Amino acid sequence: MEKTRLPLAVGEDVASAAAVTLTGVSKSFPGVRALSDVDFDCRPGEVHALVGENGSGKSTLIKIASGVIQADAGTVDIGGEQLGTGGVKRARRLGLMTAYQDTSLVTELSVADNIALSFNAVGKPRPVDLDQVLARFQLPFGQSDTVASLGPGARQLLEVARAMAHRPRVLMLDEPTAALDMRLAEHLGELIRLSRDEGTAIVYVSHRLAEIRRLADRLTVLRDGVVQGTYASKDWEIDEIVELMVGTSTELEFPARTAPASPPTRLDVRDLQGQGFGPVSIQVGAGEIVGVAGAEGNGQRALLRGIIGIGLTGGSTGVDGKALNRVTPATALDAGISFQSGDRAAESVFAPMSVMDNATAQLGSDAGPSGSSLTRRLLPAFRRATDELGIVAASPYQPISGLSGGNQQKTVLARPALRPPKVLVVDEPTQGVDARARMDIYRVLADAADDGIAVLVNSSDSAELAGLCDRVYVMSRGTVVRELTGTTTESEIVRSFVSATDVAEADGPAVAAGGGLLHRMFGRLAAHLPIAVLLVLITVVSLYTGAHSDVFWTRTNLANLLILTLPLGFVALGQQVTMLAGLLDISVGSTMSLTVVLASMTLPDLYPSSLLATLGVLALAVIAIAGFNSLLIEVLKVTPIVATVATMGIVQGIAIVLRPQPAGMIAPQLVSLVSQGIGFVPAAFIGLVAIALAMEFWLHRARRGLALRAVGFDGESSRRVGERVSAVHAASLLVCALGAVIGGVFLASQTGLGSNDVGAGYVLPCFAAVFLGGAVLSGGRGSFVGALLGALFLGLLNNVTPLLNIPDAWQQIIYGGILLFAIASYVSLERTRSRRASLAARPT
Prior knowledge:
Blueprint: H1 14-17, E1 20-29, E2 32-42, E3 47-51, H2 58-66, E4 73-78, E5 81-82, H3 87-93, E6 96-99, H4 111-120, H5 130-136, H6 152-165, E7 170-174, H7 182-197, E8 201-205, H8 209-215, E9 218-223, E10 226-232, H9 238-246, E11 265-274, E12 277-285, E13 289-293, H10 300-307, E14 312-319, E15 322-323, H11 329-334, E16 337-340, H12 344-348, H13 355-359, H14 375-389, H15 405-418, E17 423-427, H16 435-450, E18 454-458, H17 462-468, E19 471-476, E20 479-485, H18 490-500, H19 516-548, H20 555-580, H21 588-602, H22 608-635, H23 640-658, E21 663-665, H24 669-675, E22 677-678, E23 681-682, H25 683-701, H26 703-713, H27 715-720, H28 725-751, E24 753-754, H29 763-772, H30 784-803, H31 808-840
Parallel strand pairs: 3-8, 3-9, 6-7, 7-8, 13-18, 13-19, 16-17, 17-18
Antiparallel strand pairs: 1-2, 1-4, 4-5, 9-10, 11-12, 11-14, 14-15, 19-20, 21-24, 22-23
Helix pairs in contact: 4-26, 6-7, 14-15, 15-16, 17-18, 19-30, 19-31, 20-25, 20-28, 20-29, 20-30, 21-22, 21-23, 21-28, 22-23, 22-28, 25-26, 29-30
């Protein structure tokens, strides 16, 4: 190949002609130099391919250009302006959009919300007609579908289409077709050509070299972080590109092996059916490699998962003539079935754990006696796997997240290599890995078959199936429509499933027109279930108590109930914000105690001077407590529970120092002021309700509300589209501290005296209120109205137990039982909704 650059116009330099230019870029990580003095550019209206082995520096280069990470040296220019330290947000505002292989989508949000999030993050209004956007890219789902309901191929198409919808100056595509079958890959190729023809500069990273031959105008080869050359468009030979990538001649051939004649059946699947597939019957013999092919979303992945019991509703699975009675991933492994998921990041690797721990995760009793895990046993096993599979890692104790995709995949395949199964089921074995790693993985699979293991492989790469497999089952609409035996070809496989049917992706409800009225009803019910349950509980408890107590329905009792709810209501609203952001704040109780202490020292009356002094002191307390929590969590990276426990101790200590004993009268007029209202309803409670409703509207209708939910669901994906995750976290901690302080003020009106521990009893009820309102520890979910109703319900329980002469011990039992019942109801309905969504998505 001839190393050359496209000619420039007279007087034009590369920087001015290019849409994006990286100059002298270098980047090092601990023990690894990822990039060394790299120069790279891409011009408007061209596709510039970037190729190299896994670990060659491609992803690092893309992340530097996108602002995800900072280079140690060098500059990035986008449209003639330097990126500097502006990060993702500035890169996107300058017109550089990136579609990641593992996507930057928040899976719990809808398609519409994900598109809106991407535009909101850069301060642009989302497209008015999202249906038109989806139609333009011919995406096979609707804007109301959740991303979690889409299959991998549909998610990847959405990731690319969302980036293209910005009409960017530069579009960076990182392995965009890794999860796509040939049909969807060709569709994506059409979208890329369309974007290129509109003048977009496209940086294209892929291990599918045939695609690069079709699409690329220029090609740059990276090896060990160093540019090996940039080549103008011509008739590239794939072997030449691979040789440049790996630095030596590489034979791109599948392992030579002979298919066994009439092998005994090891895996016997009979009439298997489940979510998105079935009924399916297939057999795999000892020493065979059998493939599963089909257009994306026709049940291939669901079938492989069903074999180990995931999403299974019927049928049987047998190994060596013995049927598995109760199929689960654990029982399947015990029976000799080793399953390796195609979703490597989410299901195959444990990112924070070491390479050795990941490789030896299924070692079983060989790891140590009585369920122990001994390094003296793990280390030799890991070294044996490293030698056999060619895993490249700086240390056995290196986190697997620091390895390239190919080495991660080899580490995953080390599990069946170290504990040989009877049946090896592998989904997308070479997705996102380079040519050399592919050959290593093919050899691993071939060696497994030679050892008598039955190997079942699903792959979106039909050439891979043709070169590797002895037989291929072709699937369409969830069932096997054809079996290809003997020697076959890529074109024959593709022709088999394309001619069978032209279906849209069926891995989620996005393809099934929303699943019908019943599915939509269940979706709405699941979203509002916490509020509905709380309203029912409040009504039932109130009616029952009113029927057994003459005091309950009196104006005085109802007014006291609402007044006593105020402190818990405000602190619950603040806590809900942090829970939505994926954090929590255990220091709220001590913050409330400190607020009461400070009020006892600055608010003897309601004169303006006292009010101003109190407001000033409490404002400083809010800022100091929230700022300290933010420092611990965001800067020092202390986990939220540890950080806020530390803050709790410090704040409680300050309250004790200021008021060792209860003392200091708080303005008596505050009690009457709080009790003022309309009828028996205090004005402060009306304000609390108004605030909760406003926050609920903001959460689901405002840009920042969407950002809060997105950050809580998936901070990394939110950061990739330009959201400032640390700022969202800091703001949520500030609102939580503010809620605790406001709650403390209402608590002070009830105590009338400075006490250093009066807020301690509000910590657990605060969390109970938000959990009853639908919050989860993982973040992103919850309702402000639900949190307020949770607080009101807990206040109601405290109010009615003495009226019904219920002992304190039974009060706590009832309290816990109702909480468990409510949470169990939410989980049950959510599972029902997910099941109906999957059934609605089944091919018909």
